[in-house]
Amino acid sequence: MSEAYPTLFSPVTLGPMTLRNRIAMAPLTRQMAHADGTPTDEMAAYYARRARGGLGLIITEGTYEQEAFQSRAYLSQPGIANAAHVAGWRPVCEAVHAHGAKIVIQLMHGGRVSDPRVLGGAPPVSASATQSGGWTLYTDNDYEKGIRNIQGAWPKVTFGQARALTVEEIHAVADGFAAGAKRAVEAGADGVEVHGANGYLLWQFITPKTNLRTDEFGGSPENNVRFARLVGERIRAAIGPDKAIILRLSQDGVDDFTGAWPGGTAYAKAVGKALAGSDYDALHWASFNYLDNRFADDPTPMPTVIRRASGLPVITNGGIADGAQAEAALTSGAGDMVAIGRPIFAHPDWPYIVRSGVPYPWLDFDRKYVVQPPLDFGLAYPTGLVDPGWPLP
């Protein structure tokens, strides 16, 4: 066995959770749940296959935590909002644990970038009364239509005008995250990740561009992060000290792929300081390339800045595709773990391949691995998906 990457394949502890190595599977949108949000056997097969490939940690796709406050974001998005969802997640967690990996369920609220088809006619909610100029992922795109074998009209679906949450509602949404976290633990998860990145609700509070508030939840980096801290506090109170809580952060979003924080590393440092002493056991930096901080005046990688300022362990994601890149991220101080996304879609055995030290002909990423990944036929079949017949808007 190669010893080329000793840091990558050493154990790591995040709060109460000890992992066999420093490789996490990044959370990646799947849209393979039943129409009512219940996880499917296909999801169990998908996650089990990656756990069997040698991962230390699986961070699941974004999962809505409650039915209230328009928290759903996607068609066929999994939920952890009721007892049926808990029952659906339980075999997923059991399958992952059977292969020696840990699993955290990512709790996500779509906020202003929720697909209007899942909101039941209600407006989306956000930090402020803004409207995203983007559109729902995987619509109005001939390539996506082709690889999903969709026939006929396929519309471009835009986002609606959001209304601002009141302070009372902010607390209620935080309670919803806590209730979802408690259900995740009931389903067998080793903890949860709170999605504060990529354009979704907590990101809309953390990012000054979308947070126009003048109360205690806006107006400064510390206030912008206050909602995320509140969510962490409520979750910790609900699940206790023995399960992990992670917070995901990013500059960009699904409707703002080139987004950057004002002030660059100074804003990142303020965010990190605001999270020091919080109830989170670790932070997770999400980007297309963690080395590109989009701030010319200071090239320090954002995860390095946040790690130093917060004093918390950091999972680093973006631009890491092989063992050498992963080891460099860890030994440079840019993270305590790495999260690998697209390469693990294409290569479920990525950890074992990397650890072998043998040169490997990596496949280029292709969205076919998102739409129909290699499956473990002991758990599911490719024909197991049922078209929910979502109506056109």
UniProtKB/TrEMBL annotation:
CDD domains: OYE_like_FMN_family. Gene3D superfamilies: Aldolase class I. Keywords: Flavoprotein, Oxidoreductase. Residues 8-358 form the NADH:flavin oxidoreductase/NADH oxidase N-terminal domain. InterPro entries: Aldolase_TIM, NADH_flavin_oxidoreductase, OxRdtase_FMN_N. It holds the Pfam family Oxidored_FMN. GO terms for molecular function: FMN binding; oxidoreductase activity. PANTHER family: BINDING OXIDOREDUCTASE, PUTATIVE (AFU_ORTHOLOGUE AFUA_2G08260)-RELATED. This is NADH:flavin oxidoreductase. It comes from Paragemmobacter kunshanensis.
